């Protein structure tokens, strides 16, 4: 299951990030590491971007970036 398919209020743990290079480094720097718990806080009116809570931080990412993050519920 990919992160972009979760809806408001759902929680999951990061299983794998399917990217490399600068985007991977940026996601890792923001706290998207293996087994971190993520909660979907809200989505923008047109569903992009989405706000997430990860490691007590609130982060907004694009759906295209969220579609690269594999999670398990």
From TrEMBL:
Residue span(s) of domain Ferrous iron transporter FeoA-like: 1-73
Keywords (A to Z) from UniProt: Iron
Cited Pfam families: FeoA (PF04023)
Family annotation (InterPro entries): Fe-transptr_FeoA-like, FeoA, FeoA_core_dom, Transcriptional_repressor_C
Protein name: Ferrous iron transport protein A
Native organism taxonomy: Bacteria, Pseudomonadati, Campylobacterota, Epsilonproteobacteria, Campylobacterales
């Amino acid at each position: 299951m990919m992160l972009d398919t979760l809806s408001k209020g759902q929680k999951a743990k990061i299983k794998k990030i399917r990217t490399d290079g600068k985007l991977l480094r940026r996601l890792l720097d923001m706290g998207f590491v293996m087994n971190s718990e993520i909660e979907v806080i809200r989505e923008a009116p047109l569903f992009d971007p989405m706000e997430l809570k990860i490691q007590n931080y609130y982060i907004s990412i694009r759906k295209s970036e969220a579609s690269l993050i594999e999670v398990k519920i």
